[in-house]
Amino acid sequence: MTPQQQALVAGSSAALASAAAGASGEAQATAAGVAAAAAGAAANMTTQQQAEAAGVAASLAAASAGMTSQQQAEAAGAAAAASAAMGNMTAVQQAEAAGTAAAAAAALVGLTPQAQAAAAGAAAAAAGAVAGMTTQQQADAAGSAAAAAGASAGLAVQDQAIAAGSAAATAAALAGMTPEQQASAAGSAASTAAAAAGMTPQQQALVAGSSAALASAAAGASGEVQATAAGVAAAAAGAAANMTTQQQAEAAGVAASLAAASAGMTSQQQAEAAGAAAAASAAMGNMTAVQQAEAAGTAAAAAAALVGLTPQAQAAAAGAAAAAAGAVAGMTTQQQADAAGSAAAAAGASAGLAVQDQAIAAGSAAATAA
């Protein structure tokens, strides 16, 4: 028999013996995995092949024991990781082996591509924890495994990134990370997956923001916090993708406004969230107070336009956002008013307001800020 056949028959025999001894389904799967890995080693299979055989044997044993599809995938991942550890593979390799085995088991039982990715992420995180990985490393491993499983299962590029973010957030939550850390882990994993899949920097930033917002929502955060998380993640992804500070601020604004919309916030709140996120990104990028205010105004106006607000309302939103950003950046009240007026005029011009109306909008915004 081939080495693979030797490993599988060894696993099957061990599972049967374990069952005859009254062991639980989980114990039967573990016994199958250990036996398959040992048989693979005796047959001179590589450590990677041993881990794969262990995963398959464990999933088959779990199925025979009547365990659920989810439990079969978990058993496969655990067995593969244990085999990889016995073969002195690194913690990263153990997590990768677990994810691959879990995804294969999930596919074997007919789970959806999304479920396959989730199973891979969960298995990788669990393996990482056993291998002594930090909570951040566990989240990263989960995201990487989920993205790989999603790609193998034929998910679209954007869905691969979303699956990565979701898996990382779940791993972070299980590891006891804070809601903010969960959102950050989700955004980082999603942007990494998006970059690996060849998405543009803008797409990487948006999928990072979306994933962070979803993780934040899952953690029970408010709409405002979800929008903030989206903006931070988008800016970070943009920085990693070598976007300029201006582009990072723009991406942060768009991501925040989309998150605010998903959270059911009003059009006005969406514009405010966009402005605040863009300003925060600009500040992180060491842009001047004036540039922070300009970024806030531009982002708020764009968000207001996106939701269909009138040109006058777009200008007002830009002015309010610029003034708020200026205040945070330490501007004097006069500078805040000036920034509001400038932003409102620029937004009005972009929205097609007549010259006189641009001036009126600028004055109104400055007065409101003052």
Automatic annotation (TrEMBL):
This is Uncharacterized protein. It comes from Polarella glacialis.
